[in-house]
Amino acid sequence: MRLSQIPTDKIFTDEEIEQIVYSNTSDTGLSTEYGLVFGNSMLIKERVKAAIKAYKDGRIKKIIFSGGSNGISNQSNDTVPEAVKMKNLAIQMGMKEEDILIEDKSKNSFENVDNTFSMIPERNAITVITSEFHLKRCFAIIKKRFPNMEVVLIPAKDGFSDKENWFLSDNSWNSGRSLVTYEANLLIQYAKENKIADLEVPDEILPLKTK
């Protein structure tokens, strides 16, 4: 079953949500020239930390921090772009400034991808570093634009929206449950609208059938 085939006229179980959002997002362990870090004003520290580890482990040679100042996660109306904040934090954590690129204009994940790939020559492979619940959407956006690109996924664990803990919270605003539930519905919506690659979801685990 593909994302676009999943019916939207039902309430999903936790197991179904988990498969929609987290299935087929494992880290392959491969290395690439560039690592793309998606901005989020509330999860910057976790994403930069994961990127720095990949950099120090030799899995990426250069990091692109992507994110402007007008994204949906900027609840405080901070005027400093997410990319600049991430760059400053990465340097504090010991990364060489010459290995950092920034894209500081984007307001959403689609613009993160479009603006970033207009900056770099690499079109064969990229490592994506973002929160675990956000990995599949980023992967699907890139695959829609570059179907043959090798995309390596590295999760930035935050302790509340990860595969192993998102379901432990209630559905209050910005909880792990609310973020992941929203993401599941967004993936289905974007696939139906043909905005992202229409990825497969395991039928044997997610036996959803249209009415």
Care to describe what's here?
- 33% of the residues lie in helices and 15% in strands.
- The longest helix is centred in the last third of the chain and has 17 residues.
- It has a domain of 133 residues: Rossmann fold.
- Helix 2 crosses helix 3.
- The protein is an alpha/beta fold.
- A five-stranded parallel β-sheet has the order 3-2-1-4-5, with helices on both faces.
- The chain is globular and about 50 Å long.
- Helix 3 links the parallel strand 2 and strand 3.
- It has six helices and five strands.
In a nutshell, what does this entry contain?
The chain has helices spanning 14-22, 44-56, 82-92, 109-117, 135-145, 176-192; strands at residues 32-38, 60-66, 100-103, 125-131, 150-156.
Topology:
Blueprint lengths: L13 H9 L9 E7 L5 H13 L3 E7 L15 H11 L7 E4 L5 H9 L7 E7 L3 H11 L4 E7 L19 H17 L19
Parallel strand pairs: 1-2, 1-4, 2-3, 4-5
Any key phrases for this structure?
211 residues, five-stranded parallel sheet, 33% helix
Shape: globular
Structural class: alpha/beta
How big is the Rg? 17 Å
Mind telling me the CATH class of the domain at 29-161? Alpha Beta
